[in-house]
Amino acid sequence: MAQAKIQAKMNEAFNAKFSRTLSMADRSGQLLESLDQLEMRVEALREAASALELERESIMEVIQAIQTGQEMRNICPGEREELELTADRLMGRTLAVEVSVSTVRNPQQEEALNKATSIIDEVVQKLLDNMESGRQRLLALHAACLTEAPAVPIDQRFQAVVIGCALDDQKKIKRRLETLLRNVGNAEKNIKLMDHQKLEKANGCQ
């Protein structure tokens, strides 16, 4: 009889332990499911913030193009002043929107990003001296960021540097180069338009 009671107690203890183990497993599974859902929400948040970053950059680029475009110069001073004030106000409101998505980098990726940034900055500084040469250099840097075969020569040294960057940084580097190329293209158009207008005035005076 005593032996039976002892065995019954042992069975109860075993069943209780087994039940607790299952309960802990269930709780662990629920927590894991919650974390999986949170991970998806975090990624969606980062994507939304990145999209806002792109939209902010796009708006600023359009405002700058309007401010420096030839169309603005062709307007009479009174109307131009009003348009410039509006553009300045919009730029100020855009700058007041701060969106930032930080990228986690290891030391090697940090070093690669600094090198890539330095190379681009060096090209930008030389643009004023020789815009056409600078544009060709930017095209070579941009080609190094493309996955498909580009139609222009690739800067292989820059490509090796970009490959060492974090994926998010690679996208931002490519985007910066595309913005610079658009700005250079707009500047060249404005210069040609101004030169054409000078020729027309000179011919009209003859």
Automatic annotation (TrEMBL):
GO terms for molecular function: adenyl-nucleotide exchange factor activity; protein-folding chaperone binding. Residues 28-62, 170-197 form a coiled coil. One of its GO terms (biological process) is protein stabilization. Keywords: Coiled coil. The keyword Coiled coil applies. InterPro entries: BAG2, BAG_domain. Residues 112-192 form the BAG domain. PROSITE patterns: BAG. The keyword rRNA-binding does not apply. This is BAG domain-containing protein. It comes from Takifugu bimaculatus.
